[in-house]
Design brief:
Length: about 270
């Protein structure tokens, strides 16, 4: 295994860029990473150092594998739980498992995806999220990739109170400034139905594509709204959890000295 590629298991609430920064500080060497994992997600992130610091592009085309769920019934401006609720469905039509499975299966193959408005994709030197935060018109930008495997793992009806409570607890664990107070206020202001439909999915797709964008597109094709929850990047290329350093182990001494070790001094979205 290449010693200049350090695979870490990122936990919910931790920032990929902060992990890269702390590794750089620990090793006294510049680092980069091969793709940001959203703060509401967990999973494999690859930190590059040494010779591989300059070879980031050669990893761009490797596949990533995720497991996640779609919580149907509402949408946010980020298409995950860490966003402002923008749409809700008061009378959700009865989703049918067979139809959900067929729509999910239809995404196998080539995939032309619009970047989510809250994403790090840069246009004219500015990330799309910066356009959004500044109240500017967000450019429509697309990425072409491929989904080599996607399937429905389970489909069930769940209590909305339990799901919303879990989302709010996760938001409370997020480090940095992500509009948490405003988002939580919006959750408290919405009257949710008693239950939601929830679909658990696994997918392998090319690097650079967003699960949040995939969830948006699956929901639209089903003529409903949904957000991604329980997002886990289970594989990044050849790396899986079994290959990863755990943050609490790798930085055990640093965390003993400073339990706030992974909290950024400042944080851009």
């Amino acid at each position: 295994m290449n010693n200049d590629i350090l695979p870490f298991w990122q936990e919910i609430g931790t920032s990929t860029s902060i992990i890269a920064k702390r590794v750089s500080e620990k090793l006294g060497a510049p680092t980069s990473h091969t793709g940001t994992l959203d703060p509401m997600a967990s999973g494999v992130v690859l930190i590059l150092k040494g010779d591989e610091y300059f070879n980031k592009e050669k990893y761009i085309q490797k596949n990533k594998t995720y497991e996640f769920s779609i919580l149907f019934g509402f949408d946010t401006d980020t298409h995950d739980g860490l966003g402002l609720i923008t749409k809700t469905i008061e009378d959700e039509r009865g989703l049918v498992e067979k139809e959900v499975a067929e729509v999910i299966d239809s995404f196998n193959g080539l995939y032309h995806q619009k970047y989510p408005e809250f994403s790090s994709k840069k246009i004219s030197g500015k990330s799309l999220w910066e356009y959004k935060r500044q109240g500017l018109k967000v450019p429509e930008v697309y990425i072409d990739g491929e989904i080599s495997d996607i399937k429905l793992l389970s489909f069930k009806e769940v209590l909305s109170s339990e799901e919303i409570t879990k989302i709010k607890e996760q938001i409370g664990s997020i480090k940095g400034n992500f509009r948490q107070d405003e988002i939580l206020d919006r959750y408290d202001a919405v009257n949710f139905p008693q239950t939601f439909y929830k679909a658990k999915i696994s997918v392998t797709m090319t690097r650079g594509m967003y699960v949040r964008g995939l969830v948006r597109d699956i929901s639209h094709k089903l003529k409903t709204f949904g957000i991604v929850v329980d997002l886990v990047r289970t594989k990044d290329g050849e790396y899986s959890k079994e290959n990863c350093y755990l943050l609490n182990d790798y930085f055990s001494e640093e965390l003993k000295i400073n339990p706030h070790f992974f909290e950024p001094e400042y944080k851009n979205f």
